[in-house]
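input
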Amino acid sequence: MIKFFIQTYGCQANVADSQAIANFLKDLDCEQVFTQESADIIIINTCAIRDKAEQKIYSYIGRLAKLRKQNIFFKIVIVGCIASYKKKDFYSRFPFITFVNGARDDKNLLQQKLLDLIMSMQTSKQINKLTEPVVLNKDTNISKFKNFNLKLGGLKVENKHSIQSFINIMTGCNNFCTYCIVPFTRGREISYLASDILEKIKFDISIGAKEIILLGQNVNSYKCPETEINFAGLLKKVAILPGNFWIRFMSPNPKDMTLDVIKVMAEHQDKICGFVHHPVQSGSNKILELMNRSYTVEKYLQQIDWIKKYLPKATISTDIIVGFPGENEQDFIATVELIKTVNFDNVYSYIFSPRKYTKAALMQDNLSYQEKQVRLDYLQKVQIDIAKNKNEAYIGHTLKCLVEKPAVNGMLLARSAGNHTVLFNGDYELINSFVDVNIETAGATNLTGSLIDKC
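output
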């Protein structure tokens, strides 16, 4: 049997892609392993969003060279965003790589490449009497898997983890934010058929998925190419599917956020989690314009008002880029004030990282790294205080949670509808179940409580 290990970097869209690959390989009678030393194939799903992540990937590939000496069948496959524009670089730097397939490349071609690779490895192992006779044969081709859609993502099933379904409803992006490389790595926006998405979700629910996560670089701009149903319509269709499951989505763009999405969330609070990740990036209109974000702070705050009006118990998180080229002290202060005004539950904040091929990489950067770090530290301290105060308000209240996995301290880790990490003591059999937890203590990142009952 061929054993494979997947190393995933980057966003949840990459997680979805990795799960689709894993499920496809399992259909080829391969075994997924979770240590690279025991694998025959290592698949590296790359992320191009920051230069630091790219360098980390190169370092990781370099370290894998020694594994080839331990396993004569050892193969390395590179997929994902960096693979879209650095194929030649990968092949020249690492001649031991088997093949490279980018995020914007044909998924059918990737399936065929994987199929050919598995057949070849199975044959080699069989010749060397290291495996049982293969199920696949020389007549096997990709048409055997015509109903397997590698684009949509897949069901994430791991030992002692909850069953989540990561579903790509679209790929690519048309926005061309000046700091973002996604349009170059994943191409222009392509929405997938609503019928395919719904069938995939129904199947995943039928085999145990408790959380459906709809993914896209900009889910708000989803439009079914067949029916022209928009994101709000798709969200509603998913919500009315029978079953005991939750729905989340990532990520909207304020440029395209519409009130109908919020209203659908309000109408189906039993299924759609009261959590909105709404990336603002900056609290300065000047910086937003330089970023080509195509909305203003005022428009963003109007959308926050929609959320608070129709979903008063919802949690809201955001992304912030600190030290974007042109950011002065007033721009930074405006961002901090926006954080205080919205009172975010969580903020994912980063120092600006220039990426090749983007306009921002050519902009004059007026700040040193040290100055940016000072700003980031201050912003994060402000948010930690906000998050701690907001979390403390849950003490004494009961939250419905989905139990995800064991925590490192022997407790169970669960997640609330509002995306809080909740820790409590309980049996492992509760994993992938909904439970009610009474919250007893709270910090800036975690809530801790006691199990009341299984839902």
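quick obs: Residues 133-147 have pLDDT under 50 and may be disordered.
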